Amino acid sequence: MKKKIIGIFICMLLIATVLPVSGNVGVESNSMLLSSGNTLYVGGNGTGNYTRIQDAIDDASDGDTVFVYDDSSPYYENVVVDKSITLKGENKETTVINGSGGEIVVNISSDNVILSGFTVQNYGNDSNATSLIFIQSDYNVISGNIITGNTWCGIDIFHSGYNTISGNTISSVLEGIVLSRGKNNNISGNIIKDCMTGIDLVWYSNNNSIFGNTITNNMWGITTGHFCINDVISLNNISYNKMYGIIAMNCFNYKITKNNFIGNLINARFGYLLIGAFAFGFEYKALRDIRSTIKWDGNYWNKPRSFPKPIFGRLPPSGYIPWVQFDWRPALKPYDIPGM
Q1: What is the torsional sign of CA 118, 124, 127, 131?
Q2: CA separation for the pair 30, 36 (Å, rounded)
Q3: Which pTM value belongs to this model?
Q4: Separation in Å, CA 155 to CA 65, 143, 297
Q5: Strand ranges in 237-308 using DSSP code E only, listed in sequence order
Q6: Between β-strands 237-239 and 260-262, what pairing exists: parallel, antiparallel or unpaired?
Q7: Which of 26, 113, 177, 245 could serve as a FRET partner for 231 with CA atoms 20 to 30 Å apart?
Q8: Which residues make beta-bridge pairs with 311?
Q9: pLDDT tens digits for range 137-175
């Protein structure tokens, strides 16, 4: 009996070494798919390299990489990315896409796009761009770019979700990042400066994370409006903005926590317009606890504070009733956030 059991055990070990488990099969299959894409080259001196970024994108397939050399920069194009590809520049300082007459410089309409390593700009008399990067798709990554210049919006995320916007420097546009009807987007580690508005969340944007950004020397740091819900604004450097650090209008179940508010003319304000809420289909029951719908917690307010920090604002109807909310546990020292 004992020999029989040992024999069965040995057979089981042999089978295990021959047949991989189903989990490993899935991983191997995914790895093969991820590594199966081709690389198409733009610029440079290689045989068969493209001269235009758009031509390479048009010839690419999902999963491919379009690599753009900087020696043929700037590229005077308005690029449409309608495939799930990686679009990578050689060097973000010197690989430049300059809008050349269209309203959008880089238009991302496909899911699962990676865009990195570029300067995306709009300088010159022949360009009238409204957005430097426009996203109307999901699960994209926009990272490590310089986005600047002479237009309305740096990154415009419209009706899109699960995008990651990280490690970019955005400057000299009217609005650095706009989320309109965006959900579950992650905006982290960006430097946004010298704009009219740093980040603008509007039109029912919800469940977005604004984390670890430096938002400085704008007119307004962060603004919200048109009934945004469940967004988290945490561990950001919101500093030296000429009017407001943050102005939170008609936002619900917001968490504004552990940010550095330093040197803004007015660090924070909030407000609600009940008439506007009815106009957009909100019932009164959704607003009856409006006085506590923003959670301010653990922020640093210009200087160490041992007592709660009041934040002044207005309540319905029509936003005329003065009210005050509190950060009950303000920080005693600034948070150490990279990029400050």
Answers
A1: positive
A2: 10
A3: 0.83
A4: 22, 12, 29
A5: 237-239, 244-249, 251-252, 254-257, 260-262, 266-271, 294-297, 300-301
A6: parallel
A7: 113
A8: 325
A9: 999 999 999 999 878 999 999 999 999 999 999 999 999
